[in-house]
Specification:
This protein has about 500 residues and is an alpha+beta fold. The chain is built from 12 helices and 24 strands. It has a single domain (about 5-495), classed as 3-Layer(bba) Sandwich (FAD/NAD(P)-binding domain), CATH 3.50.50.60. The strands form 7 sheets. Strands 5, 15, 16, 17, 18, 19, 22 and 23 form an 8-stranded antiparallel beta sheet that branches. It has a 5-stranded parallel beta sheet with strand order 8-2-1-12-24. A hairpin with a 2-residue loop joins strand 6 and strand 7. Helix 1 (about 10-25) runs parallel beside helix 12 (about 480-495), helix 5 (about 140-150) packs across helix 9 (about 380-395) and helix 9 packs across helix 11. The chain starts with a strand and ends with a helix. About 55% of the residues are buried. Its cofactor is FAD. Keywords: FAD, Flavoprotein.
Length: about 500
């Protein structure tokens, strides 16, 4: 009989693991909490904003963030085949080589740059299209010109070894349509005899018997049902995977006992070390019309990497640029041609020092997760993000935007002086959708998973997703999550030999 595996989560990592195990002859059941990706907004890059708060979004929120003006931050996460790669801007960033070498130095043996670089190349040359071969819209071309006027260099390939500079985004698109790992890896084998895809099924917990994972429990109460397997792979993301472990009795003993959850293994770091990239908006209205989003054209096409201090070894900021005013919770301020004419330079922090946690409020699926990013708790994060905001203000005031487009800063606006930007950052920062760290891998006793992504103390159970990152990467986490999926699948196959 072929070896059976349940993979939980049809997102970036889970889809890759599924394909590799199916190809190897495993009997695979892929479980996804959401439904199929039938919403047309998923496939048209111009409509990605429609997916927030939609049925395909877990629509999670943090607890009030003490250092971010007491706000509860919205954390969009994909609840659909494709996972968060069905909702995001499809930006593909290998990140800095030093990120992965840092993982290895911290105890994640085998995860250094020399090991992961060939995996990036294989992904990009195999099933997943990664391209910057698309025309920039006029406003995006002018943003690039303004950044060069500000003193940044044009970087033609930020995935070529140097991140610094202003660049056109490399994205996972084909013919103006989104391509994610669900589409590229799983859909072509969806009818394989050794694959079953179970949708609209939320995993409550892992079934552990005599120290070994033997399946997963779907739902609860009268709708509960069990799926048995030889192995279980959690790929539910940095918020989903630790929540499943905690409901399974794998986590901090005191927290579990308080909630009446039987302790299967005391693992204090499950849900700990949560961190995320942050953005803060700098919004401009324009005299000249930018125009509405066009079908097949993403509203973000450029970004930049920049060091807020000269002594940094790698960039600590990554602003992302939108061809629309990203008002969010801000009051729209109409320009000459109305509130739709403008653009946003979203200042970005990509090396956060703050660390938060994820905990349960109860043992049931309906009990809300207590997600605390500890956003901006560390003053170094505030300083870096504020520096990025100030840079964005300067870029927007350069001739390529201020003169050619009549760009006028709507937010923070002239009423916010440069010395008061730290307060602006605390009042407006939002997630960059890159949570990591809650199932950290390493070689120490506190690590949740070992470098082969096996949950410590539980046989037959792995976590293969962004939650295992010891520290967040210098850039978008989707490409690193794909690498984690490829290497994780390889580790499953090697350990079965």
């Amino acid at each position: 009989m072929p070896r059976s595996v349940v993979v939980v989560g049809a997102g970036t990592s889970g889809s890759i693991v599924t394909r590799r195990l199916v190809d190897a002859g495993y009997d695979v059941t892929l479980v996804e909490a959401g439904g199929y990706d039938t919403n047309p907004a998923i496939h048209d890059p111009a409509r990605a904003g429609e997916l927030w708060h939609a049925a395909e979004d877990w629509d999670l929120y943090t607890v009030p963030q003490e250092h971010a003006a007491g706000r509860r931050l919205h954390l969009p996460r994909g609840r659909v085949t494709g996972g968060s790669h069905a909702l995001n801007a499809m930006i593909w960033v290998r990140c800095a080589a030093s990120d992965y070498d840092g993982w290895e130095r911290s105890g994640a043996t085998g995860w250094g740059w020399s090991a992961v670089a060939p995996v990036f190349e294989a992904i990009e040359n195999d099933l997943l299209p990664v391209t910057d071969d698309y025309p920039l819209t006029p406003i995006q071309r002018s943003i690039v010109d303004a950044a060069v006027e500000e003193g940044l260099e044009r970087n033609p390939d930020y995935n070529g070894g140097t991140l610094d500079g202003i660049s056109q985004e490399q994205v996972t698109m084909r013919d103006g349509r989104r391509v994610n790992t669900w589409m590229a890896y799983v859909r072509p084998v969806e009818d394989a005899a050794n694959l079953r895809v179970v949708t609209d099924a939320e995993v409550h917990s892992v079934i552990v018997e005599d120290g070994r994972a033997v399946g997963v429990r779907l739902g609860e109460g009268s709708e509960q049902r069990d799926l048995r397997a030889d192995e279980v792979v959690l790929a539910a993301g940095a918020l989903g995977s630790p929540a499943i472990l905690l409901r399974s009795g794998i986590g901090p003993r005191a927290d579990l006992e308080t909630l009446g959850i039987d302790v299967v293994r005391d693992a204090p770091a499950v849900g700990a070390d949560l961190h995320d990239h942050l953005l803060s908006p700098v919004i401009f209205t324009t005299r000249e019309p930018v125009g509405p989003p066009q079908p097949g054209v993403s509203v973000t096409q450029t970004h930049l990497f920049w060091r807020s201090r000269d002594d940094l070894a790698e960039p600590d900021t990554q602003p992302i640029h939108f061809s629309v005013p990203m008002w969010g919770e801000l009051e729209p301020r109409p320009g000459t041609h109305g509130p739709g004419d403008g653009f946003s330079l979203m200042a970005g922090l990509v090396t956060p020092h703050s660390r938060g946690s994820l905990r349960l409020s109860g043992a049931g699926l309906a009990d809300p997760l207590l997600i605390d990013l500890a956003a901006l708790e560390d003053e170094r994060d505030v300083a870096a993000l504020a520096a990025s905001v100030r840079q964005a203000r300067r870029i927007g005031a350069r001739p390529a935007l201020a003169e050619a487009w009549g760009a006028t800063e709507a937010y923070p606006g002239p009423e916010v002086a440069d010395e008061d930007v730290e307060d602006w950052v605390r009042r407006t920062s939002i997630t960059y959708h890159h949570q990591v760290g809650t199932c950290r891998m390493g070689s120490d006793d506190r690590a949740v998973v070992d470098p082969r992504l096996r949950v410590r103390g539980i046989a037959g159970l792995r976590v293969i997703d962004a939650s295992v990152m010891p520290t967040i990467t210098t850039g978008n986490t989707n490409a690193p999550a794909a690498v984690i999926g490829e290497i994780g699948a390889r580790l499953v196959l090697e350990d079965a030999d």
